[in-house]
Design brief:
- The protein has eleven helices and ten strands.
- It is α/β, with parallel strands linked by helices and 317 residues long.
- It is globular, with a radius of gyration of 20 Å.
- The mean pLDDT is 93.
- An eight-stranded parallel beta barrel has the order 1-2-5-6-7-8-9-10, surrounded by five helices. Strands 3-4 form a two-stranded antiparallel sheet.
């Protein structure tokens, strides 16, 4: 079922969803299931599965370093299919521009269609570690809007090199990212909203936001988006702080602000166990306020661990 249909079916009730990352190569998928199992009591209608960028590794060959491209966390589509089968829940694979040619993207989308996966999260992706700025893959898309257009074309039977007359077209529901504090590369929040509007006009069906810790910024973002004519569901993304270094890491990586009250609470913690509890309590307060405001879904970034998300969901749902 499409994400937008789940939202309509809920008839104003706030839904619970979460996001996971594929395990590292060589790890057992059971570890992933062990973190999903405790969250299923909250009846998530869908689970997102991220996709990792490729990265360079250096292999020692007789004293010489051989530079090779690899993916440390492959298997997004396979994991989506496995979770869909095991838990009878919809899954949303993240599809990136970076690291994929248009042809590879088409093959991935065809596989998703065969597997009965109805939803796609279309993202540009981050720059590789060796890149200062994002550089498009040769033969790939430079922007998320181009990826949205490719998915929408496939929904109409328009493949890269031909139009196929068929009664079995894909019908993907397309999600895109939104940034309450603007994308780190955008010159202003307004220009970032203009880009978001373009993605929606190109066929995006819903928006999931980057993490934020100040609900007022999210509510202002939603109001500004609606004023610009963006009328698709906007889903807030919530990440509980878990370790002390998040105070510096999250603003540095995602270019977001942390409220001073949260910073002070984390600074008073003697260890990361206390930090994790502060993160849970802050996310509970955030979630309850957003739920009262009528958000369609509360989407949690679990990053492979579920104990804190479980604690939050118990208080909110």
């Amino acid at each position: 079922m499409k994400i937008t249909d789940h939202i309509k079916k809920a008839d104003g009730k706030t839904l619970f969803s979460f996001e996971i990352i594929p395990p590292m190569k060589g790890r057992n998928i059971k570890e992933l299931y062990d973190n999903i199992d405790p969250l299923m009591e909250f009846n998530p209608p869908f689970i997102d599965v991220t996709t990792s960028r490729e990265e360079y590794v250096y292999i020692d060959r007789d004293g010489l370093l051989d530079k090779k491209l690899t993916r440390m966390r492959p298997g997004t589509v396979g994991i989506c299919a496995s979770i869909k089968h095991k838990y009878e829940v919809d899954t949303v694979p993240h599809v990136l521009c970076g690291g994929f040619t248009k042809e590879e993207t088409e093959y991935l989308l065809v596989d998703c269609h065969y597997l009965g996966i109805d939803n796609i999260m279309a993202l540009r992706g981050d720059a590789m570690r060796e890149e200062k700025y994002f550089e498009p893959t040769q033969g790939g898309h430079p922007y998320a809007i181009d990826l949205v257009k490719q998915v929408q074309n496939l929904n109409c039977g328009k493949y890269l090199h031909e139009v196929i007359e068929t009664d079995n077209c894909a019908d993907f529901c397309i999600g895109v990212a939104g940034y309450p504090e603007k994308h780190l590369e955008a010159p202003s929040l307004k220009s970032d909203l203009i880009r978001l509007k373009e993605k929606v006009d190109a066929g995006a069906d819903y928006v999931v936001t980057q993490m934020f810790f100040d609900n007022q910024k999210f509510l202002e973002f939603v109001a500004a988006a609606k004023a610009m004519g963006i009328d698709v569901p906007i889903i807030p993304g919530i990440k509980p702080i878990a370790v002390k270094r998040h105070l510096h890491l999250l603003p540095q990586v995602f270019k977001i602000d942390l409220p001073q009250d949260l910073i002070d609470a984390v600074d008073r913690c003697a260890n990361n166990k206390e930090v994790r509890q502060v993160g849970v309590e802050w996310a509970i307060a955030q979630s309850k306020e957003l739920k009262a405001a009528g958000v369609p879904v509360l989407h949690y970034y679990s990053m492979g661990k579920s104990d804190n998300i479980q604690a939050i969901a118990k208080s909110v749902f």
